[in-house]
Amino acid sequence: xxxxxxxxxxxxxxxxxxxxxxxxxxxxxxxxxxxxxxxxxxxxxxxxxxxxxxxxxxxxxxxxxxxxxxxxxxxxxxxxxxxxxxxxxxxxxxxxxxxxxxxxxxxxxxxxxxxxxxxxxxxxxxxxxxxxxxxxxxxxxxxxxxxxxxxxxxxxxxxxxxxxxxxxxxxxxxxxxxxxxxxxxxxxxxxxxxxxxxxxxxxxxxxxxxxxxxxxxxxxxxxxxxxxxxxxxxxxxxxxxxxxxxxxxxxxxxxxxxxxxxxxxxxxxxxxxxxxxxxxxxxxxxxxxxxxxxxxxxxxxxxxxxxxxxxxxxxxxxxxxxxxxx
Amino acid sequence: xxxxxxxxxxxxxxxxxxxxxxxxxxxxxxxxxxxxxxxxxxxxxxxxxxxxxxxxxxxxxxxxxxxxxxxxxxxxxxxxxxxxxxxxxxxxxxxxxxxxxxxxxxxxxxxxxxxxx
Lengths: 326, 117
Hints:
The complex is a heterodimer of chains A (326) and B (117).
Chain A: E1 3-6, E2 9-11, H1 19-25, E3 43-48, H2 61-65, E4 68-70, E5 81-85, E6 93-103, E7 108-114, E8 124-128, E9 134-138, E10 149-154, H3 160-167, E11 174-181, E12 195-200, H4 204-216, E13 223-229, H5 238-247, E14 251-257, E15 269-271, H6 274-281, E16 289-295, H7 296-308, E17 316-321
Parallel strand pairs in A: 1-5, 12-13, 12-16, 13-14, 14-15, 16-17
Antiparallel strand pairs in A: 1-2, 3-4, 3-5, 6-7, 6-11, 7-10, 8-9, 8-11
Chain B: H1 3-6, H2 10-26, H3 31-34, H4 39-53, H5 62-69, H6 76-92, H7 97-109, H8 111-115
């Protein structure tokens, strides 16, 4: 008999019973709809244990890698032990020590922290100052390349959190992290697939992590990175990205500055509209994997554009930066 | 065997949903109803709709259909546009005509509820 644990409690499951049916029979209030693997409303996440084949139909590669599955279609193998959670995001807070704090652009801070957290570059963590104040930031680092977690924080002088980081936080201080969360990260398995990465402002943070992870995993298909900014003074990591571009023949980086009219021949960036430039350069995105990071309006507009250009919905991954609302 | 099973069940819905959603988003007659903030939610709704239209398992009732579409002021042209995109999607996937006919019959069976007539 398979062993099933739901939020740590054992749940009896019959030999030809789905996890959803076992949970419902045992009195758990699990949401569900079609019970046939189509609507995805019964999706749960396995923390450990081997999932049987055919229980992840229609899920994106990143959801599969994180252990998400459709409980209505999941019939555990007889010898399996599965730990399943109702709230997929880990809620425990982990301490993190500040190792470095530097301005890497006019308004952009780089924060490097040491913490015992497993993550995929491009996921995000909630960073807690104390019990009351927290913000979420995307991860720009790759664990195999550097021991510290790296975040890029836009400094907003009237922003409670970022201004505290900029003015008061010191190397050696302890913060608390929650997560990781999010599905916007690189998954191996299709090394030849063309990748399009696009972000505005500190949307570069997750993209930088995703790009380096893809290269670490020896992605051989073309990788196009589009970094947008309202003003050229908001660009950062220009040298690092140029270096990656010259070290890897399959990487192309474009810096696009939206509000500029002057002549920029000879500059590292081009003036223009990031949506138009991507549309012209990638009229057909049927085969592409796409990563979009930045403000909600940007992500929403470009996601639709890429989908209409033929991209598969499951191949468009987004990290939406939500402005803090008090 | 239902037409849902004959065309491949949930896998057929997965194959059809992106094509169908792309078509309705590009269709000026109806895209205002589909161009919502959250594409994931809208995508899931299209999956549920296709599962129903293909004769698959669903828990829609005529009352649900009426409620869901009540405030949209839909007319015959809107309904026909969706039906055209549905048929176009199935043709693109090379679904045999007899199955397409069966699916159209299912779609037509909810027409009055959707249009609230």
